[in-house]
Amino acid sequence: MNDLALLTEAARSAGDIARRYFQKSPKVWDKGGSAGPVTEADLEVDRMLSDDLRAARPDYGWLSEETEDSATRLSQENVFIVDPIDGTRAFIEGAPHWAHSLAIAKSGRVEVAAIYMPMLDLMFTATLGGGAYLNDVPINVSARRETPGANILSSKANFKEEFWPGGFPDLQRSFRSSLAYRLCLVANGEFDGMLTLRPTWEWDVAAGCLIVAEAGGLATEQTGVQPVFNSITGQLNGIVASNSDIHFGLIAGLT
Known about the structure:
By secondary structure, the chain is of the alpha+beta class. The chain has 2 domains: 3-138, Fructose-1,6-Bisphosphatase, Chain A, domain 1 (2-Layer Sandwich), CATH 3.30.540.10; 151-254, 3-Layer(aba) Sandwich (D-Maltodextrin-Binding Protein, domain 2), CATH 3.40.190.80. 29% of the residues lie in helices and 29% in strands. Strand 5 (99-106) and strand 6 form a beta hairpin. Helix 1 (3-21) packs antiparallel against helix 2 and helix 4 (179-187) packs parallel to helix 5. The longest helix has 19 residues, at 3-21. The protein starts with a helix and ends with a helix.
């Protein structure tokens, strides 16, 4: 089984587990330190993914939101970067916009990605140089050329003028709770772009960044540099994703 088939199979199995808990009042804990909530579904999905993926690829490293981190991954060429449930707050609220986000990075670059939305039965996939797909159909980013007026997925805080020293480009704002899903909606051309301007965990965006890039877009840190994954901190300096025309305008306003 190749790496993409491995991830898509694992993502569907994750969906089978999560659906058992969805809208059934799962146990919830606060992780503290502003890290947000975690549910028993997150933890069971994480255990399954860790067991199955690491058994299939014992030489690959592991970085997951719900697993205690180990520096061992830093010396491994390939590493799984996993968010068992991205959009846990939406999951708790009973909204369908949450995802299982799975990626494999090699030497800091994501090469394989799968993001699955179980309640919507949407499987987004990509391989480096192989294109991006939704349920096996090729997808592409928006063809919009002008940054002003673009519909950008973002939290309200990111639209404050203090973040835009180069000038705010008069954007429209929409929102979805899962960063992975936001990136997929950009890759699919349903929105013109997305951005998050806070320190961003790799597991939230690793898979989505490849899917956007393979759909013909750009996904960079907020300074415009390409993200490098499997870092010591496991974090990136925000993410800006869109097609190349809009991306240029967004970065110009942010820097």
